[in-house]
UniProtKB/TrEMBL annotation, chain A:
UniProt keywords, alphabetically: Cell membrane, Membrane, Transmembrane, Transmembrane helix
GO CC annotation: plasma membrane
The name this protein goes by in its record: ABC transporter permease
Pfam families: BPD_transp_2 (PF02653)
UniProt key word Cell wall biogenesis/degradation: no
Superkingdom to which the source organism belongs: Bacteria
Protein topology in the membrane: Multi-pass membrane protein
TrEMBL record, chain B:
Coiled-coil blocks: none
Entry's Gene Ontology cellular component terms: plasma membrane
Main location: membrane
Entry-linked CDD domains: ABC_Carb_Monos_I, ABC_Carb_Monos_II
Keyword terms: ATP-binding, Cell membrane, Membrane, Nucleotide-binding, Repeat, Sugar transport, Translocase, Transport
Name of the protein described by the UniProt record: ABC transporter ATP-binding protein
Gene Ontology molecular function, alphabetical: ATP binding; ATP hydrolysis activity
Family from the record: Belongs to the ABC transporter superfamily.
Every ABC transporter domain range: 5-239, 243-495
SMART domains membership: AAA
TrEMBL record, chain D:
Transmembrane annotation, as ranges: 28-52, 59-81, 87-108, 145-161, 192-214, 226-250, 262-284
The organism of origin for this protein: Lichenifustis flavocetrariae
Subcellular location: Cell membrane
Membrane-topology annotation of the record: Multi-pass membrane protein
InterPro entries, A to Z: ABC_transp_permease (IPR001851)
Keyword line: Cell membrane, Membrane, Transmembrane, Transmembrane helix
Protein name: ABC transporter permease
Amino acid sequence: MSDAAPAADQTARLQTRRLRLRRDGLGSRIGVALLLSLLCAAALIALAGHNPLEAFLAIVQGAVGSQHQIGASLNRTTPYLLSGAGVALCFRAGIINIGAEGQIAVGGAGAAAAALALAGAPSLVAIPLALVGGALAGSLWAGLAAAIHLGRGVHEVLVTLLLNFIALLLVQQLLAGPLGQPGAGFLQSSLMPRSAWLSHLAGFDVHAGILIAVVAAAALSFVLWWTRFGFALRVSGSSRLAAAYAGFSLARLTWGAMLTAGALAGLAGGIEVLGMHRRLIEGFSLGFGFKAVTVALLGAMEPLAVVPAALFVGLLESGSLAMQRQIGVPTALITVIEGLTMLFVLAATAARR
Amino acid sequence: MSMMLDMRGIVRRFGHVVANDAIDLDVAAGEIVGLLGENGSGKSTLMKVLFGMLPPDAGTISFRGQPLTGHTPAAAMAAGIAMIHQHFMLVDAMTVAENVMLGWRDAGRLLRRKEMADRIRDVSRRFGLDLDPDARVAALSLGRRQRVEILKAILRNAELLVLDEPTSNLASAEVAELLTVLRRLRQEGKGIIFISHKLPEVLEICDKVVVLRAGRVTGRTSVAGASQGMLAEMMIGRDVTAPRPPMVASSPGPARLSVKDFLAPGLARLSFEIRRGEIFGVAGVDGNGQIELVEALAGLRPAGSGAITIDGHDVTRASVAARLTRGLAYMPADRGTTALVKTMSVAENLMLRDSGRPPYGHGLLLTRGPANAKARALMADYDIRARDPSFIAGRLSGGNQQKIVVARELDRRPAVLIAHQAAWGLDPGATHFVLDRMLALREAGAAILYVSSELEEVLAISDRIAVMARGGFAGIVPRGEVDPRQLGIWMAGRAA
Amino acid sequence: APPAAAEEKAAMLLPGSINDQSWNALGYSILLALKPHGFTTAYTENVADSDEAEALRGYATQGYNIVMGHSGRFVSAMEQVAPDFPKTQFIAVSGNEGAAPNVMSIDWNNAQFGCQLGVLAARMSKSKMVAGVYGLEGVPNITAQAGGFRICATKAGAKVSILYVKDMEDSAAAKEAALSLIAQGADVITGKLNAAEAGLVQAAKEKHVYVTGRGVDQTKMAPDAVLTNIVEDWPAMFGKTADEVKAGKLFGNFVQYGYDTAPVTGGSLVYDADKPFNPVVPAAVVKELDDMAGQFKAGTLKVEPTREDARGGS
Amino acid sequence: MIEFLAAAIRIATPLALAALGGILSERAGVFAVGLEGMMLAGAFAAAIGAWATSEPIAGLLLAPLGGGVIGLAVAIVAVRFRADNMVTGLAVNVLALGLTSYLMRILASGGRPVSMRLPLLTALPIPALSDLPVIGPLLFAQPPLTYLTALGCLLMTLFLNRTQAGLTLRATGENPEAVFASGGHPARVRMLAVIACGAVAGLGGAVLTLQQVGTFTDGMTGGRGYMALAALIVGRWTPWGAAAACLVFGAAEAFELRLQSFGVPVSSYVVQMAPYLIALTVLAGLGQSSKLPAAIGQPLPSTR
Ligand SMILES: Nc1ncnc2c1ncn2[C@@H]1O[C@H](COP(=O)(O)OP(=O)(O)OP(=O)(O)O)[C@@H](O)[C@H]1O
Ligand SMILES: Nc1ncnc2c1ncn2[C@@H]1O[C@H](COP(=O)(O)OP(=O)(O)OP(=O)(O)O)[C@@H](O)[C@H]1O
Ligand SMILES: [Mg+2]
Ligand SMILES: [Mg+2]
């Protein structure tokens, strides 16, 4: 067979996919949803007595107004991208994993423990091992959820949720105990050894995490569309009966998806610790997990599309800080925008299902 | 004579399909009208329009002198129409009494449970329905469930009763009981619309018959003096009866599929063998263990005890994947959610069970180029009419969807094929095609288990025929020795 | 950016909402207190932990001379950001470490005030059982106050029980914790919580026991139940530093105010505008507490609580 | 001991009210993940009502409205637009958190923070009964919303089992087609059920503001909605069962506080895990939730 045939097939496939996107108008419907939530936000800003345009301008400037701001936004994007891609993978398989929050927390602790243990090791050893430590810890936590879910038939939403609460307490316990910095003014670990700091990219205040995250999202997209495992996940997400009929083990798929998502969330935690705080600090993971769900949804559960989705949330949040600094619109507004966006996107994408 | 129901010029379209094309239908009090027609001829649609579940695109309905337009099921019921759907509309988790009270004004806003239970017992006794108001519907047989539906209609004083294929799920004893009840209702002056594909019972119970074809009325006749052949001709029109594929007596080879002392929930102990080049047909009323049997063989349900071997290899506890590797193919009856993933493309559905093997995949990876090429080839071979392999399977017509399943399962050159309702919902051409492929597979030496509730189909292609009743085989006969009366007795051998 | 014409600017980052009627509201008042010292002010509330560095950097970039973080948790982020802004003074409220040259922590001596509350509680208790409700076990200023409370109340002859709640903002849970302690016989309750402090006062009010609060507002909530409040005098602590920063000085140390740093003591016990204690507190007890303050000032009395002193349980 | 039970009852009350609401929603076939947001909105509305009028009754009237608004959002997105129930629930939780905090800020409008000191609903001892030994003070000297919770269990049980509306609601969660075919409106039933769920859960939130704390703070429900959700599953979707499960959770939390007082050798963080571990253990012990309403989470077929 000539090489031309598959290539032709591929372009045909891409074309139909693009056509399908256009015909279903998925992209434009998400666009309308975003627009609607911004309109609602504008109304709320006006209600608070501020000028919505001015506020949005402040958000934009705060998000991309300078090289530094861009870097900050990218850093903010990183954990959302990583954990959101993992959540998207689970959602694809029909597993509602809302445990990213706890997995990030535990992952951060794992990375911190590894980095502290590796004091003295060169960066080339310390950073990868610490990140692996974070990913492993996140996986472990997600695995625990999978085990309870599969073993005892408890709904995954409840398991992952309850484990979130436990994970946060666990990290506090670690900080009050073995990982804590003696005499520190707060629940925090000692500073990581410098060799474990995730370096900044030249010229930007952005750490290497964003690269890892983009690579991970691309890898996940590859897994989803080009591997048998991804195929099985997609089948089971569409119909569990069909997946069983196809000979895929639902339990194994659940393990696979949960462990992968856990590893990514753990990695996100590790990157936060090594790249942002340079130490494990109480509450560093609060709220990431639920936003990962927003991001996965916004990205229509497609890891590559999670990139712009995470970027959107990252920009929005880093911009919103600037908004409050400059014109005093409360940041709670951003939570409102996120909630509204989720709702509108849900309605928009479900309408034609 | 003034008609109880008067439907005039009903038109209903679904996209390009004209399901009802200017249909007129009258029913008088104390009359049973048979509604006949091939699959997809528009019977159910017409009834849904009558019952207010679908708005018509044109036409008028008048019931007992009152016009019915833009109505809802609630309004239809209030007017005195009751509908018994092909798939029962009962809540399994609730009791008979609760199902009866659901949505019924007389039950009161504050439910009068005791009074209702008494009334249920009363009517149930009067019509010989034998229903316990406190029984949970989930625990009732299909025949009983249907009686619950009839009970609902009687209790609500329905004047017009619509029964959409009420007998297709019933054993013959149950059918007889149903017909008795219907006669009784006719005596009481109710009107009845009776939809069925089974001509003998139509001739037995109906007063007149209306025949639909492709959404139009192609015949009306009074039953007196009508014959089955006449009705069949009105239904099928110029199309001659489906040609029966020629069967050559098979030369029995060694056993390929063997089932010994097999026991699983919902099944009685089963033992049988299917040999090389043999089609083993399983007939019987749906719900007698067919689904349990095929799914257990396919590896989708846990086995209780006993042994299943394929070509001498024990697969009793093997996974679905392991059975696939041993050469077991399976066409499930549930096309919608098991056999196909409707949101995925034709190509992806063709590789559903073979994604780990060339040309679809290699190791952990999918090989999309070769997979698409293969899909094109299969689409040509099996006449799957889709624009290209990336077309979404759920948007194809039912027949083309089924062809995907057939292509996928046969292309693997299976040693053993389990086909469950393989021609379900297919038009005659497509049915013919599927049966042809089965026979070709038989020639190639496979062992085939062909399970269908359509006796005709089973008789047409099986070397041996078994009848399933109450989870076991009521009897097995070779093709040459089939006695239709005996088959009927076996089929009815199921508790009411 | 062009140098702002001799404009002095101070910004405050708050970990929670300024509406919590407790810790963050206090932080907001610190900021307001800098206005008379000639600063224009700005604040950001609900700063997530992951945003701390970013928010600090944002204000520093905008040319704020003083950038404050209203929790010890900000120290870590300040240490990261400060080297890039050598002219900005970063101050962590209630941290306990500094970093030269421009990250400082300011706190008050929790142990001294905790100790005073311990004696007050022991004296006012009829059951000789007193209790404290805290959050974040192991954080130094919590350890200091809870430990100081236990050491001194025990010395004064009372049995002490300490409970930690999961969330310093969850008043319903804190109230429940207080109720459980009262049920066990405690008749004076103290604590160091944020929004949840109101739960303690509410519980004491309902069960007719005594409580200490964290601000005169809480006296208004339950004038009969509240014995006194620790009113943290952050404006004074910060005002002093702010003036020096304005004069061009930078600090990289940890300053702890207390009775020994008078006249700025970092805090005081206040019942309402003109009284330090609820009138039910006997004069003898008031005198005893005043004497303690004197001893702290003179350095003759020192309390140095350990994690063990602040442990949960009785 | 009595105190311990009293504590369990207090902690259980907001959970139980929310769980009662959740039963309405889940029995009608919509997962009640949004309980947290509904409670929070209810707590907020109650606080606003009581603060603006200085009358706790006004808060009591507004609370169902607050929760109901969130219920309406779920109803529109999950029922009308047929979006995934779980994710919709999570989304409204985020929305409620943001919206209540934001509106609090608007009230404060940049200046001095509003200091909400709300009048609390006081205990209403039932004459005679409250004088009974032991159970008198325990059961018959409660504040109004606690009585309402018990009454709610009773009414809800009657409603579900003894009324046409309750029958229809249950049937909608089991088999909406059957409801449709018997003349009902499954979509309407689900919408109403979810809105009612919001209203009842809103009262659950009001317990916190009007009966326990007397003020509103951001995110003050602190995960109680999720515990209520777990409770109604443990309680097998029955009002008394869910209430019993809430009492178990309440007892677990009361136990956790007392455990700390005994001075166990682990830190408070470990002890604080107890309620969640207990919930998880109970759920795992129950195993497969076999009696889940059959059609829960399944969108209604479109009429198109
Ligand atoms: N909801 C629908 N959407 C699109 N097409 C429909 C729909 N319902 C029915 N049709 C089409 O209308 C035609 C008539 O269908 P109908 O169900 O009335 O047939 P029927 O006579 O009841 O067939 P059967 O004997 O199989 O029950 C068919 O072509 C069918 O595919
Ligand atoms: N044949 C059917 N059997 C069962 N359910 C159906 C059938 N056809 C449609 N439905 C679904 O049942 C629901 C009917 O609910 P309902 O009648 O309350 O909604 P509606 O008709 O959209 O609106 P309204 O309440 O305003 O009349 C619809 O969601 C519809 O999709
Ligand atoms: Mg039909
Ligand atoms: Mg039919």
